[in-house]
Amino acid sequence: MKKRLKFLTAPALVCLLALTACGGNEDTSGEGDSDNGGGEANETETSGDDLYSIDDFEITKENDGEAVGGILNFGVVSDTTFEGTLNWQFYSGVPDARVIEWFDESLFAFDEAFNITDEGAATVEVSEDNRTFTITIKDNVNWHDGEPVKAEDYVFAHEVIGHPDYTGVRYDAGFQNIEGMEEYHNGEADEISGFNIIDDKTVEMTFIEPNPSLLGAGLWYYAMPKHYFEGVEVADMDSSEQVREKPMGFGPFKVESIVPGESVTYTKNEDYWQGEPLLDGVTLKVINPDTVVQALRAGDVDMVDVFPATQFADNADMSNVDWLGRVAPGYSYTGFKLGKWDADAGEVVTDPDAKMADVNLRKAIAHAVNYQEIGDRMYNGLRFPATTVIPPYHALYHDESNEGLGYDPDLANQLLDEAGYEDVNGDGFRETPDGEELTITLAAMSGDSTAEAVTDYEIQAWSEIGLKVEKLDNTLHEFNSFYDRVEEDDPAIDMYSAAWSVGSDIDPSGLWGPKALFNYTRYTDDKLQELLADGLSEEAFDIEYRKEAYNEFQAYMNEVVPAAPTLYRLEVRPLNKRVSGFTWEVGNNDLGFHTIQLNAEEPAVDQ
Question: Per-residue b/e over 172-188, b at no fewer than 16 CB within 10 Å?
Fold first, then answer.
């Protein structure tokens, strides 16, 4: 159901939200990915005045009419170029994933609960003790050069990620649970003993401990063409021609050419294992959020990955597109820098003396900001307050009863008072309990004026509880440089505004575990490790037990607050009227990129 709401432009919104932060609405209570809404903010009031919900959107557009082949024009909406690390084993940013998914794909298919089915390029059988998995790749699955996808290619992906010279970010506790992986990773063995290749298409994979995630989305999804990387050292792979210039997969389309960071041209893979694609090819290009509406209305692009939320209300009546929507697989959050990454040990090291080490300081920062107001006023309901670090995309495990760290500036002030943060010198900002000046440096991502407006509002809200927060280098930072500095634990960063796109596997260890490079907060403690382990225990094969384990994890994360979840998202995607055969629905394996079709030679144009 839609509720009526006057949508305000970014400048007006900042003024309004500043008033709210000053106490104008004290009864109001309160998601790597890019954290900005995208889109151009106009100086005049916009016409969008609706508050939207998931009920306002379809999630699938079935095949309609006669396919005419043709080239689909696909836009990746971003204010920065894609990095160009075009391999599942090495990529780290969402824009690169948008490029990869057209030419390479998971070996496995999943149902609506993210359990592996037999509909993918490979099937899985599990031993009675849930430790040994037999993976069989289907006979008609071939790489783009015609070579069959083999069991050794699946093993090779693990050998690369587990290699001592691996330069990516994927080696974590899940890989360490494979028998013999640690010995291989430490250079004590030349192969991973947990793999047993039965024949060209079949491999057995044995784990040290049974893990309920492995029955679903906890396996590594991807194979890597061993023959194609022959002679390339692991340390050089991420910069190699095979990754940067001529990537290869077994997906529905082949890479024909790349303009680094800007565009990719694909041709259809006539030998695709699910059948010849209905499109002749795809042209992918990066589109700035400020020009995406113009491109869609003119028919210059047929689809985009995600439409900027801040622009939807003003363009919902675009006559030449159909809108799809879903609850996004991710969330925005405010992360606190609480330690460092020990590259030699491959683990986080929490610093008890970090500037942000006081949990009451972190809680106060979370309680100070009215994210309901931001979601309604800035995003017309397409974003809404986040309560835990397991988003509602994982509906089975998201704890709806957890109210999170809601908007409560009075509580924020109380927490700071009790922790000894007081304004000693009368300048309007609190000093540390030791009486020293406190300035907190925030790293945030650029985008459009929406990103700037939200960040400015947050800083204003924090100032209203007496905290002096300043932008890193007094500016916002583009996607790639932002994550470089966060990942490298830049000492200038005290906290950061970021977002995660989550995968199919519910296990949060890859983001918050002690051996996860993606744990950018660098926080861990014994109880957190116990809770993460409990969700992967033998008892957790019982779904109700696992749900309770992850409820406890969500509650504990809100207790220790290494990161404060801020916003969940609804994603909307426009499809030109000539496009059909596409779905966002988890578990709908009848539709994929190979079923997308064009029903007319020319795109529809907005009238």
Answer: bbbbebbbbbbebbeee
CATH superfamily, region 109-239: Dipeptide-binding Protein; Domain 1 (3.90.76.10)
First and final CA of the chain: distance in angstroms?
27
State the residue for tokens 């597109």: 321
φ/ψ of residue 392, rounded to 5: -65, -10
What string of H, E and C letters represents the secondary structure of 334-384?
EEECCEEEECCCCEEEECCCCCCCCHHHHHHHHHCCCHHHHHHHHHCCCEE
Task: Tell me the C-alpha distance between 543 and 29, whole Å.
Answer: 32
Instruction: Determine the pLDDT at residue 172.
Output: 87
DSSP for residue 519: -
Burial call 492-514: b when 16+ CB within 10 Å, e when fewer: ebbbbbbbbbbbbbbbbbbbbbb
Q: Check residue 81 and give its pLDDT.
A: 93
| Number of Cβ within a 10 Å radius of residue 565 | 26
- Percent of the chain scored above 70 by pLDDT? 92
Could you tell me the pTM of the whole model? 0.79
In single-letter form, the type of residue at position 528 comes to: L
Q: By three-state DSSP, how is residue 21 classified?
A: helix
Half-sphere exposure of 376 (CA within 13 A, CB side): 14
Helix or strand run (H / E) with residue 575: strand 563-576
3-31+330-569 and 109-239 agree in CATH topology: no
Q: Single out the residue of 80, 74, 224 nearest to residue 158, CA to CA.
A: 224
> Can you tell me the distance from the alpha carbon of 515 to that of 177, in angstroms, rounded to the nearest whole number?
12
- Residue 347: exposure state from Cβ atoms within 10 A (0-12, 13-18, ≥19): middle
Is residue 532 within 8 Å of residue 513, measured between CB atoms? yes
Query: What's domain 3-31+330-569's superfamily in CATH?
Result: Dipeptide-binding Protein; Domain 3 (3.10.105.10)
Dist. CA 313–CA 378, nearest whole Å: 10
Task: Encode pLDDT of 54-92 as tens digits.
Answer: 999 999 999 988 999 999 999 999 988 999 999 999 998
Structure-token pair, residue 559: 């207790």
- For the chain, give every domain's residue range: 3-31+330-569, 109-239
Both tokens assigned to 183:
């010995």
Contacts by residues 92-100 (CB-CB < 8 Å, ≥ 24 positions apart): 92/32, 92/168, 92/169, 92/483, 93/32, 93/479, 93/480, 93/483, 94/32, 94/33, 94/34, 94/501, 95/286, 95/479, 98/284, 98/305, 99/264, 99/284, 100/247, 100/249
CA distance 566 to 297: 32
Nearest to 314 by CA among 39, 567, 573, 11: 39
